[in-house]
Amino acid sequence: MSDSASAGGTTADMPVTDDKSRRDFLLISTATVGVVGTALACWPLIHAMNPAADTLALASTEVDLAPVQTGQSITVVWRGKPVFIRRRTADEIKTAEAVPMDKLIDPQPDKARVKKPEWLIMVGVCTHLGCIPLGQKPNDPHGEFGGWFCPCHGSHYDTSGRIRKGPAPKNLEIPPYQFVSDTLIRIG
Amino acid sequence: MAAKSYSNPIVKWIEYRLPIFSFLDHELNEYPTPRNLNYWWNFGSLAGIILVIMIATGIVLAMSYMPHVNYAFESVERIMRDVNYGWLLRYIHSNGGSAFFIVVYIHLFRGMYYGSYKAPRELLWIIGVVILLAMMATAFMGYVLPWGQMSFWAATVITNLFSAVPLVGESIVTWLWGGFSVDNPTLNRFYSLHYLLPFVIFALVFVHLWALHVHKSNNPTGVDIKGPQDTIPFHPYYTIKDTFGLGAFMIVFMFFVFFAPNFFGEPDNYIKANPLVTPAHIVPEWYFLPYYAILRAITFDIWFIPAKLIGVAAMFGSILILLFLPWLDRSKVRSATFRPIYKQVFWVFVVDCIILGWVGANTPDADFHGVKMLWIGQAATFYYFFHIVILIPLISVLETPRALPDSISQAVTPGGKS
Questions:
Q1: Residue finishing a domain among B222, B252, B282
Q2: Which helix (H) or strand (E) holds A29?
């Protein structure tokens, strides 16, 4: 179109600005489509690094609780991470329930962290930088609050797995789980 | 580029189509170099040579290594015991990582002392900082590959740093892992990237040298090259000096490779990775200790920002802040030789970095003559940022520099032409 106009020979009185803005529009819209298209094309590359279907399929584990005695802890593996299961003593439950909320770094009542007060089930991964806290075995250090202690950077967790002292920002995570029967749980 | 004529017909034929011979001659042979470079200028070429050694040994190691959680640890042991010279290749590669960082840290401090980052070499400096970051990523991922206890827990702790990012932190960590914990997908991708990044570094080194050759090397006086009387050709003067330095370096390097190959390593890494047990005392490799100390120094929230996020930001910030050094230092005088105050505090900064490394090697609740290690780490972290953000700009404005020589040649041979 611009070719035929300039072929007319009267370039001096041509409305040049119109042509310029039309070209600007074409340039900007082409560039925009190009950038958006490239970004969309990158998505498969990025998403390929997210957990694959078979990794996601391993996302639930069943655990038989029958052999666990009061005051005993077991560790099971769920999604490659340790899950701490503790059958708490009456004393531990009482201590955990008695803590006032303003003493907590990440305030959460004990009730909100258990389905049955006797069974404390949580992901055994320190919320600071992912180490495994000690305290599953009777002769492990249990920290200043009688629960778990992370040796990497010194985080102390109480008998409800709540952070009480040290660099960790959050309580030990509670995984999604349900009681299938009185002595069987499904995690995930 | 003076047109050179070559007599060899094959060289001539190639030169006409791709002027590679005149290029090499221009950049490596006749390349004019300040005549007064001291031994601190050896470390750039040394770093380049180590990169080549790392790539050469790494490619061969990759032929016997298996990036799978069930075989990685065993395949490394097989390299050590059964593969011909596997022990040598692996010890050169693992000690080469340490050597690379020693050499690059000296190279970096040399740049800070002699003001090599100042105009017109700001981009040269920035590319160098980017190379350092790429080196750190490569070293970290390489350390994970043997799949020992330290490998696994280093990977866990460092990837967990990203969980400090607000809102999307957890998603980023899952994405980095390719699962819900450090596992086989993580090992696979680290291997892929550990193989890729050295070639990215190689390309960055090329750009680094390109920028270097535009304005040529800085020198101990920091005074610009003013004419041919200030320079000597790179070959043979600096090829021989660099070769001599390489010989001296190799004596030290080979001592470690042959007589103390595990000096820089952690014994726990000879225990196969166990996702259910964290070693009692986890420490990074020595070259990351100062950053680890900075990470752990932040134990307090600031307003609504959690300590973990500030710690991570401070750790990454300690390197990223170097990008701004050319503009934080406002002094036009490059070399600390002529800057009486900066010259002193430079060494305070070096000592501060060493203290940070020492703190990083200890547990935070350790005690040093009644002083808590954490407090020393906090003081040293404070000084690190105070030095770069406050002291350097302040000194650069307030200090009266000593008189500069008129030229390099006048400084080197007084009475000669200037």
A1: B282
A2: helix A16-47
